[in-house]
Design goal:
The protein is built from six helices and 19 strands. The protein is α/β, with parallel strands linked by helices and about 300 residues long. The protein folds into two domains: about 180 residues, FAD/NAD(P)-binding domain (3-Layer(bba) Sandwich), CATH 3.50.50; about 120 residues, 3-Layer(bba) Sandwich (FAD/NAD(P)-binding domain), CATH 3.50.50.60. Strand 15 and strand 16 form a beta hairpin. Bound molecules: NADP nicotinamide-adenine-dinucleotide phosphate (NAP).
Length: about 300
Amino acid sequence: MSETRNVVIIGSGCSGHTAALYAARANLKPLVVEGHEPGGQLSLTTMVENFPGFPEGILGPQLVENMRKQAERFGAEYRTAHLTSADLGQRPFLLHLGKHQVHAQALIIASGASARWLGLPHEQQLIGHGVSSCATCDGFFFSGKEIVVVGGGDSAMEEATFLTRFASKVTIIHRRDEFRASKIMLERARGNPKIDFLTDTVVEDVYDVHKKEVTAVKLSSVKTGKTWDFPTSALFLGIGHVPNAKMFEGQLDTDADGYLKTRNYVFTRVHGVYACGDVQDRRYRQAITAAGTGCMAAMEAEKFLEEHGK
Ligand code: NAP
């Protein structure tokens, strides 16, 4: 089955929803392909305190749900599917959503970024058994237990602080002794009596695959090279994200880390294809900036369709 749409938006995080809202209000009846992680990173977070308009903060999942409802009110259509491959060589662009094909007169890529893993020998085997990248999803399972969080940015601080709701103790392990995290988030974690810090330390492996649960991590000191086992019931990762742009490899320009390259904020090198949000932003990566570029992408798509015909 095949269909042709004015605008297809890949991804349903903050940038995708905002692009959908603007495209819908321009009467373009956008199709939003939800992707593997509907709602994007906001759906995995807790309280969002820096999105303007919510003086008391708002829960991330609630914020994205509101955005979606707002876009749907103006005619955006959401589809539970993900993009498997795309042919941007001719217009309308051909998009494969599994077995289903969609032709798009204009394409907005808002596919975001997904959690980065450490690449430990036994990490993948223990995902879902104590290894996690989502504190809000999995923290509940570790009530009264000791937990390790890896990372030195805002994500790690946020995860660690959130996990103290359940855990008896949280140890943040960071490979340096300086932190990328914002001052306010770092101070909040430092002031939490349940949180300890282990700096200049890296995780080398996680045990125990045979028991199908996390029992300890193998640590190593960056300064001395000393290694030791550190007992823990869970390993949470807060070490940043990888852009979801692989399906455009060879067709759009990416930087060395795989982020889509754009000029004038949202233009890719293919006319009629725009990129917004975390898939193209390695610098700001905020909900509000993702929403901003989502808006820009939709406005540019609208202009493009006006000039080149729907
Ligand atoms: P980030 O700022 O890139 O921090 C990633 C952290 O993980 C860094 O400390 C990095 O160490 C460490 N790391 C990366 N790869 C590693 C590896 N292989 N082994 C060990 N450590 C590794 O990512 P983020 O914390 O996810 O934050 C991303 C963006 O989202 C930021 O702009 C942040 O402000 C924003 N954010 C905001 C909030 C909020 O305001 N509520 C919450 C979460 C995130 P190095 O420092 O040594 O490189």
